[in-house]
Prior knowledge:
By secondary structure, the protein is of the alpha/beta class.
Amino acid sequence: MSSNHPAAAPAPLHQKPEVTQDTVCRRFSVAPMMDWTTSDCRVFHRLMSRHTLLYTEMVTTGALIHGDAARHLQYHDSEHPVALQLGGSDPKELARCTRMAEEWGYDEVNLNVGCPSDRVQNNMIGACLMAHPQRVADCLAEMQAGVRIPVTVKHRLGIDDLDSFEHLHQFIEIVRTSGCRSFTIHARKAILDGLSPKENRDIPPLMYDRVYRIKELFPDLEVIINGGIKTLEECDTHLQHVDGVMIGREAYQNPWPLLSQVDSRYFGDSHAIPSRMEVALAFIPYLEKRLAEGAPLYAITKHLLGLFHGQRGGKQFRRYLSENGHKRGAAEDTFRAALACVSQQDH
């Protein structure tokens, strides 16, 4: 749907695969992350992997129904396969927004039942819905009605005192009656009273075994594991027990070692792997178009700060962009100057 995405595609490093409603694969995906997985970020990630499923930031139903829907829904054609994550708890509103997502060409819609922030709790969005499995089932049933794209759910192991395996089992038993067949499980519970969203990403202990048990008990469901995963070797271990792996912060902060390898490792696609520098240079045509639209340089390039993580000149690259990317008049030449800080050997 090129009419929805005014920026031109970056010079491709590889041919984008054909994606249809029936071929969305969740074997490896990058998690939805607020302020991080923007369209600019997803275009960057797609230069390293053609098959990884990319998720938007969570978008609330209110933002789509009462706000600037186009601003939230527009994306770049190169992002496919791409999924829209919705936040909400009104079945009719969620169904309306799911239809909007299908009209805009998204490959999947995912319901957020995992975000622990106070703001979403007050609006009956996110992890607090784990206390209301029938409501979640009703929402998912309405969302699936009238659309052909997959509708999935992402949730926690539990919340607060509702943290037993029995509660998790009952939650899934009820939610699956909606017809939803794909469950992405963050292998931590959420503590809604007393921990910040940031603390909820680290303090509650990871319990991967509970996710494994869910797959054993519900072999007909697609079960995706999420939480604390940092390496492809860890992914290999999880994939012995579940159907897919979703990686969050590590894929954002140190993307190249993960995303450049997944196509051959998990999707049987042995295309040439682009170097870090090739990825950066391939991003420039897209950067030029976004700058021409009036987007600030740093807002676009901040998502690339981890590209040279652990490499010679990587710290200098990050520092140069951080110090100069905000300045008035910062443009493509600023980005190229940052790249000049990086030794091109071994990239």
